[in-house]
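Colleagues,

Please find the record for the two-part complex below.
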Amino acid sequence: MGSRLGRIPCRLGLTAMVFTGLLALVLGASPVASAAQSIKIGVVGPLSGDAATFGNSVKNAVKLYFDEINKQGGIRGVRIEIIALDDKAEPNEGANAVRRLIDREKVTAIIGTTTSGPMTAAAPYANSQRVPMLSPTATKEGLTDIGPYIFRVCFVDDFQGEAMARFARENLKIKKAAILYDNSDPYSSGLANSFSRYFIQFGGEIVRKEAFGGGDQDFTAQLTRIRNSGAEAIYTPLYYTDAGLIAKQARQLGIKVPLLGPDGFDSPKLVEIGGEAVVGSYFTNHYSPHNKDPKAQEFLAKYKAAYATTPDALAALAWDAADIMADALEKALATHDVSDQQGIRESIRQTLAGLKDFHGVTGYITFDEHRNPIKVAWILQVTPEGHRVVTTIKP
Amino acid sequence: MVEIIQQLINGLSLGSIYALIALGYTMVYGVLKLINFAHGDVYMVGAFAGFFAATSFGWGFFPTLLFAMAVAAVLGLLIERVAYRPLRNASRIAALITAIGVSLFLENLGILILHPDPRAFPDLIGLRTFEIGPLLINNRQLVIIGTSVLLMLLLHYIVTRTKMGKAMRAVAEDGETSRLMGINIDRTIAFTFALGSALAAAAGVLVGIYYTRIDPLMGFMPGLKAFVAAVLGGIGLIPGAMLGGLVMGIAEVFVVAFISSSWKDGVAFAILILILLLKPSGLLGRAAREKA
C-alpha cells in the first residue's frame, strides 16, 4: 500500500508502545519446541492504529501459513517461529522494529514491512546486516533499489497506473479521460502521473487533471469542471473513502462515466460509502478471491476457515511472501546446517534473486533485476456484492 | 458563462451551510462577546444525531432534522451552563480558552465514542437532477438552499417579532441595562445558545445529505470558515453572518474551479486577514459598534 500512511498522526503513541511491549512479552514467552531446532522469521506491519487492518492481514496470513508447516513437522524438521512486531505504519517505528528483530531476536529473514514509509526507513539496516527482507505489500517506487537483500511480492505503483491506462484505452476504448487526485498524498499523485503518462503514450488524451487536498469533502467544483470537459472516464487514484464520496457527488452532478481506481478501492467499505454510485467502477488489484486457480481457491478456503473472513489482497500477497520464503528456506536447509545462519541468509537471497514463474495465489511471480516482481495486474469491476474479475493485464 | 453559473449554484449550496453555522457564532458573540470555538463541534454532534436518527429509527428527512436540532440545542444549553456561565464575569480570554477546551473535549470524546472512521450518511432524499438548458441542479442542492433560507427567515422572525428576540437584542445592546429593565439575562443567553446550536445541527444534517460523509473531526474546518464568515459579515450582526457565509462559499468554489484547490483554505483565511486590516467591523458593520 501507499506511503500515505507515513502521515498518520501518533495519537496513540504511548498506548501503542505499551502494547508493543506486551506483545513482545507474550510472544517471547510463547512455548518454543525445545527439542526441535527452529528458525525465526520476523514480520513487521501496523498492528495498531489507523492502518491496523493492513498489518493484521499480513500477520494473519503469514502465521496461518507457517502454523500449517510446523504442524506437518516444519521445513526439513526445522520449526519456523514467527515474531510479529508493530510499526503503526510509521517510519521510525518500522526502523526500530527491524533493528530489534535482527539484533535481539536474531531472525534469519524478515517478511515486511507492510507499508512503504517504514520500508524506506527500515530496509537500509537489514541490507547492511545482510538479512533478506521480503515486503509483501509496499508498492512505492524504488524501495528494492535500497540493496541486493531487499525484495517485494507486490507490483509497483507505476505499473498499476500503466495497467489501468492500457485497460482504459484497449478494452474500454476510452479516448478522453480526466483525473481527480489528492495532491497531498504521494501514493495518489504518483499514480495520477503514471496513469497520465501511459494514457497519453497509448494514444489517449487527458482532458482535465484536477486535484484536492487531503481531508476535503466538497469535490463539486472539480467535478463540475470535469463534467464540462467531455471525459469518458475519471481516474481517481484514491483510497476507498474518498473514492466513495467522489462517486456519489459525481452522480449528483449528473456525471455518468465510470470511475477508474487503484488497489486502494479494495475494501468492503467502498460500496458501503459509495452505494450504487460506485457500482460499475473499475480498479486494479493484486488479487481477487474470485480467481479460479486451485491454489488461490485453497488459500481462500484455509483463510476463511481460520479467520471467518474473506482475505484481502494484503493477506494474499503475504501468503505468497510466506510461500516464497518457505521455498527458499527449504533450499537453504538442504545444504546448510541450522546453526549456519548467515549461510542460510545468503542462500535465501540467491533463491529469491533467481525466482522465476513462482506459482502464487496472486499470479505467477518472477523477480526482475531490481528485485521487483513481474506479474499481472487484475482488473476488477465493482458490483453491489463486491466485485467481479474483468481481465488481467500483463506487464 | 454556463460554467460560472453552474459553479455559482455549487457555491450557494456550500455558502448556505457556512451561513447556518456562522449564525450561531454571531448570535453568541452578540449576547456574550464570546467566540464560541466549540460551535463547529456542536455542528458535528448535530450531524451524528441526525445519522443515528436516520439509521437507528429509520426516520425521514424532517423528523431527522428536528431531532438533530433538538439534541444540539440541549448540548448548547449544557455547554453554556457548565462551561461558560461560571466564567460570565471572568476575563474574555479565560472564556475564549474555555471555548477551545470545550471544542477539543467534544472532538476527542467523538473519536472515543463514535470511532474516527468516517461514516456514510444515509440517503434521506432520493437523488433527482434537473436540467435547465445546459445547467444542472439536483434536488439536494435545492433542499440545502431551501432549508437554509427557511431557517433564516424563521430566525429573523424570532429575533425581530418575539419577546425573546427582543430580549436577545436588548442583551446584545447592553447587558447591564437590560438586567435593570427586568430582563432575565441567564435565560436569554441560554436561549441564544440553544438557537445557534440548533442551526448548526441543521447544517450538519444538510452536509451529511449533500456530501454523504461525517466523522468526529468534521467540525473543525467548517467551524473556522464559518467564524471567518461571521467576521466577514460583521460579527454580532445576523444579516452579516448570512452574507458572509454565502460570500465564503462562493469564493471557495470559484477558487477551486478557476485557480487551484491548493489555494482554497488559504483564500478563506486571506479574506479574514484582509477584512481585519481594511474593515474590521465587517461588510455590514458600522465602525466602533462594539462596546467595551
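Strands of chain B lie at 119-120, 129-132, 135-138, 213-214.

Comments are welcome before we finalize the supplementary table.
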